[in-house]
């Protein structure tokens, strides 16, 4: 594969709109700017003296980020994933005084509901929309989790006809695709090259009338940006492709070796075996990112290890945090 020419940008802002954690007491840290608790909106609370209280951000088991970059004097806004609940995304935007109508394109990392259900609230707020929506063709797969000693659990699936019915321009791509005149690259399907990143072993997909094992989640994709003088910024949703596979693929597809920032879910939580966590974290540290923000499904054990391995790069994620990169 010949490298794709990813245009450099001066800077980018990545604002976390949905994540598994919100901590109102986190201080600003390097490129991370936190919402100020004293500046929060106040909401009615009749049992409090004065009759109101502070309205805080809400966490959820899901992920969403607003990617904002300036090109030719104009700021552009790309929504990457939409969180797990119908209203969480739009509520975060309301509290942060962000206008959903400013979103120009939606990119979905993969088809799991904890990255897509917020489309419901977005459409309820915008009404019929002609927004482009970028996905991988296997995004639509019906899937279920098969965990020992429990009944199979079918994962809620986004409706293709419903999305088309409210006006989204659905764009399905397996290959890398550019946005904003080559300034932002959606990876498409990521090469699987490591021996230890095995996707999601307990997952099945419905193919015809049969449930078949579907651990690789081929629709998993990430966003890449090239910041002038700093290197690649990589934003993932769950990282089902394997975060090491994603970073290596980003280097391969762009020809850029230097990794500046890695943000997003690395899917090392839950029942991930400890040796895989160790291998992944050690390999991730070897890339030497200047900014590392593990979110969502990364899991406590992996986050703790990464914070120890890369203390100067590690930044704790929290809903409402904006990373100025």
Give structural attributes.
globular; 6 helices; alpha/beta; Metallo-beta-lactamase, Chain A; 8-stranded mixed beta sheet
Task: Tell me about this structure.
Helix 5 runs parallel beside helix 6. By secondary structure, this protein is α/β, with parallel strands linked by helices. The strands form four sheets. The chain has an eight-stranded mixed β-sheet. The chain has six helices and 21 strands. It has a single domain (8-324), classed as Ribonuclease Z/Hydroxyacylglutathione hydrolase-like (Metallo-beta-lactamase, Chain A, 4-Layer Sandwich), CATH 3.60.15. It has helices spanning 88-95, 119-126, 160-165, 243-254, 274-286, 300-309; strands at 8-9, 12-18, 32-33, 42-44, 52-54, 64-71, 74-80, 105-107, 132-135, 143-145, 153-155, 169-172, 177-179, 184-186, 203-207, 210-213, 223-227, 231-235, 259-265, 291-295, 322-324. The mean pLDDT is 95.
- CATH topology, by name, is Metallo-beta-lactamase, Chain A
Q: Biggest sheet, strands in spatial order?
A: 3-21-2-6-7-8-9-12
CATH class: Alpha Beta
Number of helical regions: 6
Q: Biggest β-sheet, characterized?
A: 8 strands, mixed
Explain briefly what this protein structure is:
This protein is an alpha/beta fold. The chain has helices at residues 88-95, 119-126, 160-165, 243-254, 274-286, 300-309, and strands at residues 8-9, 12-18, 32-33, 42-44, 52-54, 64-71, 74-80, 105-107, 132-135, 143-145, 153-155, 169-172, 177-179, 184-186, 203-207, 210-213, 223-227, 231-235, 259-265, 291-295, 322-324.
């Amino acid at each position: 594969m010949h490298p794709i020419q990813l245009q450099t940008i001066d800077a980018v802002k990545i604002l976390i709109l949905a994540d598994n954690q919100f901590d109102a007491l986190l201080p600003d840290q390097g490129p991370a700017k936190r919402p100020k608790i004293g500046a929060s909106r106040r909401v009615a609370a009749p049992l409090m003296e004065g009759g109101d209280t502070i309205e805080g951000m809400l966490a959820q088991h899901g992920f969403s980020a607003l990617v904002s970059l300036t090109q030719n004097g104009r700021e552009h806004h790309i929504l990457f994933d939409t969180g797990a609940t119908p209203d969480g995304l739009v509520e975060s935007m309301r509290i942060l005084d962000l206008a959903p109508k400013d979103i120009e394109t939606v990119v979905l990392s993969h088809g799991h509901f904890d990255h897509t259900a917020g489309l419901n609230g977005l459409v309820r707020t915008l009404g019929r929309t002609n927004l482009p929506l970028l996905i991988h063709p296997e995004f639509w797969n019906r899937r279920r989790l098969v965990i020992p000693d429990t009944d199979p659990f079918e994962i809620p699936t986004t409706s293709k006809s419903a999305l088309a019915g409210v006006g989204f321009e659905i764009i399905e791509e397996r290959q890398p695709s550019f946005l904003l005149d080559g300034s932002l690259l959606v990876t498409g399907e990521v090469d699987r090259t490591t021996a230890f990143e095995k996707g999601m072993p307990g997952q099945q997909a419905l193919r015809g009338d049969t449930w078949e094992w579907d651990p690789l989640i081929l629709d998993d994709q990430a966003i890449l940006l090239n910041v002038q003088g700093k290197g690649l910024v990589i934003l993932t949703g769950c990282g089902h492709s394997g975060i090491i596979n994603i970073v290596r693929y980003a280097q391969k597809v762009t020809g850029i070796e230097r990794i500046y920032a890695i943000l997003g879910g690395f899917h090392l939580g839950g029942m991930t075996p400890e040796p895989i966590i160790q291998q992944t974290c050690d390999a991730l540290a070897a890339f030497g990112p200047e900014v590392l923000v593990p979110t969502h499904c990364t899991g406590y054990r992996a986050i703790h290890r990464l914070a120890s391995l890369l203390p100067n790069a590690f930044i704790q994620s929290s809903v409402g945090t904006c990373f100025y990169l």
